[in-house]
UniProtKB/TrEMBL annotation, chain A:
<dbReference type="InterPro" id="IPR036388">
    <property type="entry name" value="WH-like_DNA-bd_sf"/>
</dbReference>
<keyword id="KW-0731">Sigma factor</keyword>
<feature type="domain" description="RNA polymerase sigma-70 region 2">
    <location>
        <begin position="12"/>
        <end position="80"/>
    </location>
</feature>
<dbReference type="InterPro" id="IPR013325">
    <property type="entry name" value="RNA_pol_sigma_r2"/>
</dbReference>
<keyword id="KW-0805">Transcription regulation</keyword>
<comment type="similarity">
    <text>Belongs to the sigma-70 factor family. ECF subfamily.</text>
</comment>
<dbReference type="InterPro" id="IPR013324">
    <property type="entry name" value="RNA_pol_sigma_r3/r4-like"/>
</dbReference>
<protein>
    <submittedName>
        <fullName>RNA polymerase sigma factor</fullName>
    </submittedName>
</protein>
<dbReference type="Pfam" id="PF04542">
    <property type="entry name" value="Sigma70_r2"/>
</dbReference>
From TrEMBL, chain B:
<feature type="transmembrane region" description="Helical">
    <location>
        <begin position="76"/>
        <end position="97"/>
    </location>
</feature>
<feature type="transmembrane region" description="Helical">
    <location>
        <begin position="166"/>
        <end position="194"/>
    </location>
</feature>
<feature type="transmembrane region" description="Helical">
    <location>
        <begin position="38"/>
        <end position="56"/>
    </location>
</feature>
<feature type="transmembrane region" description="Helical">
    <location>
        <begin position="126"/>
        <end position="146"/>
    </location>
</feature>
<keyword id="KW-0812">Transmembrane</keyword>
<keyword id="KW-0472">Membrane</keyword>
<protein>
    <submittedName>
        <fullName>Uncharacterized protein</fullName>
    </submittedName>
</protein>
<keyword id="KW-1133">Transmembrane helix</keyword>
Length: 164, 214
């Protein structure tokens, strides 16, 4: 029974692992920290999996557990010092039609998003993942109106960073 | 003009291959590892706190002065106090486990944070209870000593004869207060450090969420 559960869980996570990587990408900025957070989210997902009913989509359920781990349960990695920096190595931003200004803008945007606080990052993350305000408000436990207001503030904040 | 975030969104969802791909076996190894979440740490530290105060109360029971008390015929005071102490311990233990069980990573972020803080609060109240208990017991013990201990009674009489009774009492009271203050201070500093470090992130995120909804 446990083996079956393990098997179905690992297969699902293997398929949807990008969601976890994306959470890690937003909340960490080096290779070790990324792995550390990925590991913790995986453990939390696995611990919660027996109660996963399947009435919500696995991916939707993952957003919640992933974000909760990142903003609440996770203690920052002990292995802070790393020579490998993500933005430069793994996630090099490439514009399809090479556009210097767009690429430059994206780079600054990613840096700006990294400077946001944990809650703002969560909002941005769900927005980037195309979640509507209802789901954003349900995931964070705030009202839909306030989620909207906050999102607009974040947009203004990013605009200011980009066009000082 | 295109929204900044939409520009980011376009790029964010463009290329899923830029992320590492973990294999089945790599994920399998991960689920065998132990969590190092703050909930786990709060759980361990809380159990240690319960153990610490229980051990303290057992150790105090075997001290010389406690054995002397048995001769004072003060059972009418001490037995109810002891039973009261155990009932309180059981009550806090029950509350703590009840709160701990309600912590679920699938709740929304705000509820999850509130449940963790509630668990922490229960233990905090237990510690506060113990500190108050410590102060009350010290006062009770001092009172009994002055009433029953022949050696102290003699000393009081001698001090009275020398006209130094006020100084005698003042010295004892000040010493006791200072000792208690130092002991409580060290404990509080310890809690403040441990929980301060552990809950720094949670507290600031919780404040941020509450600010959003105010």
């Amino acid at each position: 029974m446990k083996k079956e559960l393990e098997h179905s869980f690992i297969e699902l996570l293997e398929k949807h692992q990008n969601i976890v990587h994306k959470v890690c990408r937003l909340y960490t900025n080096n290779y070790d920290a990324h792995n550390d957070l990925f590991q913790e989210i995986t453990i939390q997902l696995w611990k919660a999996y027996p109660k996963f009913r399947g009435d919500s989509k696995f991916s939707t359920w993952m957003y919640r557990v992933g974000l909760n781990t990142a903003i609440t349960l996770y203690r920052k990695s002990k292995r802070r010092i790393s020579t490998q920096d993500f933005e430069g190595v793994e996630f090099k931003i490439k514009a399809e039609n090479y556009d210097d200004t767009e690429e430059q803008q994206l780079k600054i945007l990613y840096e700006a998003v990294h400077q946001l606080n944990d809650i703002e990052k969560a909002l941005v993350f769900l927005y980037l993942e195309d979640k509507d305000y209802r789901e954003i408000s349900e995931t964070l436990g705030i009202s839909e109106v306030n989620a909207r207001v906050k999102m607009n503030r974040i947009k203004t904040k990013l605009k200011t960073i980009l066009n000082p | 003009m295109m929204d900044e975030l939409d520009l980011l969104k376009k790029d964010w969802n463009k290329d899923d291959n830029k992320y590492p791909k973990l294999t089945y076996n790599e994920i399998y190894k991960m689920i065998l590892n132990k969590s190092s979440s703050i909930v786990k740490w709060i759980f361990i530290i809380s159990l240690l706190e319960f153990a610490f105060w229980t051990v303290i109360s057992f150790l105090l029971k075997d001290t010389e002065s406690m054995k002397r008390f048995e001769q004072y015929d003060a059972d009418a005071v001490f037995i109810p106090l002891m039973i009261f102490g155990y009932i309180i311990l059981a009550y806090f233990f029950y509350l703590f486990f009840k709160n701990y069980k309600t912590i679920s990573v699938t709740d929304n972020a705000k509820v999850l944070m509130e449940n963790i803080l509630k668990t922490r609060k229960t233990v905090k109240q237990y510690v506060a209870f113990n500190l108050i208990y410590l102060v009350i017991s010290t006062v009770a013990v001092l009172y009994l000593e002055f009433e029953k201990d022949q050696q102290i009674i003699n000393q009081v009489q001698q001090a009275t004869a020398n006209g130094e009774v006020f100084k005698f009492y003042a010295t004892i009271i000040i010493t006791t207060v200072l000792l208690l203050a130092v002991a409580i201070g060290i404990l509080l500093l310890f809690y403040w450090l441990v929980y301060g470090i552990l809950l720094k992130r949670l507290n600031s995120n919780y404040r941020e969420l509450k600010k959003l909804d105010s």
